[in-house]
Amino acid sequence: MIVLLYKYFKKLIEYLVDSGYVFNKLIKMGKTTIKTNKNIQEQKSNLFDINEGIGDILVHTSEIKKNEIINDYLRNYTEIIIELFDLIEVNYEKFIKLIANEDILEEWEKNSEEATLKLDLVPEAQFTNLKIIINQFSRLHETSKSQNKEVSKLSIYYLLNILKKISNKKNGGIFVRIILNRLYNIFNENINNQIDTIHMIAVKWYINYLRMEDNSFEYLYIYNKSFKKNISLIIKNNKKKIFKSLIGSLIDGISVVYRNDQAIYEYTGLLLYNNYLEVYKNNKLEEKNKKIINITNKIYTPKNYKNFIEEIEKVKKILTENLELEQLNDKLKTLEEKLYKWGADNLKYNNIMVISCYMGAYCLFAKNENFINEIWNYKQPKDTVATHTGHNIFPEKMETIFSLIIDYKIFQERFAFFEEHHDLVPYMKKYIMLLIFKIQINTKNDLAKPHINKFNSIELENLKYKINQLKKVSNNLIEDKNLFDILKLNKDTDINKIKEKLDTYFDEIIDLISEKQNEILKQSELNDEKIESFKNEFYKNYYDNSSIKNMFNDLDLININQSNRKKENDYSIHLKPKRSIFIKNWYVDYSMSIKQNGRIFANDENKMLMNELVSLNIKNCINIDLNQVRKSIVDKINKFNKDIKSSSLFIFMTGPTYLPRHLTDIDNYRMEKNSTDSSTIITGYFNDNGVDIPVYYFRNREVKDQILLLDYKKIGEIKQTIIDNNIDKSIKYQKDNLKYFFDFEILDLNNKVNRDKYIENYKYKGEPEKLEKIVSIKIYENIELVKDEIGESGYKLIINKEDSDIV
Q1: How far is CA 395 from the centre of its chain?
Q2: So where are the chain's domains?
Q3: Which of 241, 242, 356, 585 is the most exposed place for a label (fewest CB within 10 A)?
Q4: Alpha helices in 323-386 (DSSP H)
Q5: Organism's domain of life (predicted)?
Q6: What's the pTM?
Q7: Each residue of 53-106: pLDDT tens digit?
């Protein structure tokens, strides 16, 4: 009956003295709908009508200005909505069925990828019952924003409360997005209106999120993306009052203690205070402290924050395993909370730095450069004598600039492109350079150099590259005198001299980086993983290119030899690569040059084995013209069959001409389509009475075009010696076993003993210092082609040279 009643509520309301009866009934029905598990479709329909009915009551109550009760209505309504969202954690399936449209549920069952795409593009349209809930708050806000400002504030206040609750739940990301999108739409529609809720709609929800306790920051990216949309809207529409309010909230509305390195020392120091010095030393807690401090300074993302938590948990495990917890439980808990706050504060602070850089870059893009002054001067206005403590929202030290460039990679920030496909990066570089000018102008002494010891070689090279980019930006920026006037950077300052000073500063850093990279190169040990990777790349590229040996393997003509290694059968290659190939986190990618080593070795081996093969003592040697290839091969196969079975016959072609193309018209020839990763040289098969005769081809421009028809049982075999005598010789020659057939002699010539040994062995006459950056690598295998006497059991067809066409 009550459902019918609220459907006609607007007609009935004038006859009702008190709307509370209907409202309370609707609230009760809402709670029942959420709790019951029967007839989900009916519940879904009821939920829609209940929200519409409650919305009608809220709007009517606002219109008649009964503000004393509307706060209670909104609080009770918000409570049942939060109960609904609690289902995310206790009964997610029911929650989705209650709020999602039937078509998206059906599509999800059929094709989850298509459904996901639809959810990403228009999420609100796929959740009608969630849309209806948000509608009640937005319609109440719109109807009351001019006539009942108190209610308009309450409507946004409670909507933000719902958003805050969802933001602390897992699997709530899409619902957070939907509410934030609606808030953006409300803001966009009202940005030119003088309404009291504009700060709440534009900024307050973001500050609420950063101030949440026990925040995992799982949805920080979603919040940042929405907040940056609002920032763009404010700057583009020249709304300085809202912009100041936004900056003020980021400075005064968030309390962060982002530099608190002492927190980790207090925590691990519990072991020292309780006489566990050995435990402290054995677990290398001093190193762990420094590692955690380094990690903490680089917390820019939720993933970074999660890594920080994991490191704290490792330390916590050491403490709890060694301390008497009964006496220290309270102390541990207090210090842990301090640590987690330290990490969270660093994330907030670093995140604000990134946000402020976006603001500055967008100001430049929107040609509203004067807004940058609001960012720079809010905390410490020019007319104030007092020094205001606390954090600022833009970098004031070069250390922060370097961290943004290296740790966060601010120049690769891709959270959003500007309007009309404009790119963010050039404006970001320009803004960062302006910040550096500002820092230099405000610094009486020389600028601090970056603490480059904490960077690896890749990060150092990246920093060098970015500094060179900034130098180019600086050269163009100095021409824009008007911009320096707007930002008051040239007041009482010769900006050209500042630029000269910065150029010198940048050059000094680049030199410092180069020195540090040389130091890393000299002092770093060769990395075992890099060496192993080098070997694996060698094996892979060797196998993929060792065509002749793989042909012998196809024919089962490789004999594994475990002993009697003959030195004269060693086949080797001597490499002298830069030792930086084996340094961890080195800035040069050597992957392509490493791949060449296995290929070069295989190619040399191919030539050696092929020369052995074509020099077999074959008595039946016949010269033919190129146009006789088809007929000659067929004739010789038939002749071959009179002497032996074709099952042991194979055909090998070599020379500069691609001879297999002359076989394509033969009826019983089948071309083989090699896969792209094939390491064999097989090109096709002749079918002889049901027996496939393999045809191999290996191009060699150094010999005449020729075709060998051979009995593979009589050509001999390859003897391959196992390098490690502890390995069973029953192993097969295959890709995964190559490590048993090769020996690597690696000498790091940065080591004086190795260097002296190298100079003696190779009679090196050059400057010894030049060897310090080199590694000597000799790669061996022990291989021998043991040939049989072929005699009459094969044919060699030599193609007349004048008829050959090199293809």
Answers
A1: 26
A2: 2-196, 214-376, 395-523, 526-807
A3: 241
A4: 325-365, 370-377
A5: Bacteria
A6: 0.80
A7: 999 999 988 888 778 889 999 999 999 999 999 999 998 888 888 888 888 778
